[in-house]
Amino acid sequence: MYEKLEKQIGLKFKTYDLLKNAFIHRSYLNEHKKAGLEHNERLEFLGDAVLELVVTEYLYLNYPNPEGDLTNWRSALVKGEMLAKISRELSLGEYLSLSHGEEKSGGRDKDYLLANTFEALIGVIYLELGYKKAQKFIDKFLLIHLKGILESGSHIDAKSKLQEIAQEKVATTPSYQVQNEEGPDHDKIFTMGAYIGDRMIGKGKGNSKQVAEQKAAEDALKRLKW
Questions:
Q1: Which of 11, 33, 212, 225 is deepest in the core (most CB within 10 A)?
Q2: Spatial separation of the C-alpha atoms in residues 85 and 158, rounded to whole Å
Q3: Do 24 and 45 lie in a common domain?
Q4: Closest Cα to residue 28, out of 94, 101, 118, 87?
Q5: What are the angstrom distances between the C-alpha of 200 and each of 80, 167, 204, 217?
Q6: Which residues are known to be catalytic?
Q7: Does this model's pTM top 0.70?
Q8: What's the CATH number where 171 sits?
Q9: Whole-angstrom distance between the N-terminal and C-terminal Cα of the chain?
Q10: Mutual orientation of helices 80-89 and 111-129 as an angle, nearest 10°?
């Protein structure tokens, strides 16, 4: 089942036991409680730490920029949207084990699920094959995007940019308000509005208020003609 993935990423796993766990979403176990399986959240936790170390090390060794620049670049590289994009390129969604409900709601293409799965896969690579292999995997599939990020300016935090422009143009700091919450507690989607005074200038959705606020700020930056 995983031979295609191994070929795609250029790695060979000793067994598929851990790899299988990387693709098991918590919701799947709710319908298969006697399967004796483990969901992927512990692997995701580990993979997240490995990912941050590899990216931090790479930036430190290759760029003499100040800490603030490196932090922004790292954030742009490891944010959920970027990890989800790579997961789609690797078709990781097709390997996921989901509940029927999660399947019906489009779980195989949700950004946060794909991002978490990518991190879980890194966790497996680290445990099975070691740090150097995990480092090479991250370099091959993630760090190649740094040049595009810097050229496009997508590493610039949208909320910070909006605040800077708003303070310069109208001497006001933007605020954010919840417009809507939908979905169960473990899978909520928030809609946030960005405001200048009482005027809503942008709107965005995300699986956390922070993500939705960033989306709202991005929307505002696109819409406003200062």
A1: 212
A2: 19
A3: yes
A4: 101
A5: 26, 16, 11, 11
A6: 48, 119
A7: yes
A8: 3.30.160.20
A9: 54
A10: 70
SS3 content of the chain, % helix, strand, coil (to 5): 65, 10, 25
Token duo for residue 73: 């670049």
The answer to whether the CB of 59 falls within 8 A of the CB of 74 is: yes
Instruction: Name residue, tokens 């989901």.
Output: 98
Query: Is the same domain home to 178 and 127?
Result: no
Residue 71 and residue 175 in one domain:
no
Of 127, 152, 177, the residue at which a domain comes to its end is 152
Retrieve residue 188's tokens. 């909520």
For tokens 């950004």, name the residue.
Answer: 111
What's the domain range around 208?
A: 158-223
Indicate whether 109 and 173 sit together in one domain.
no
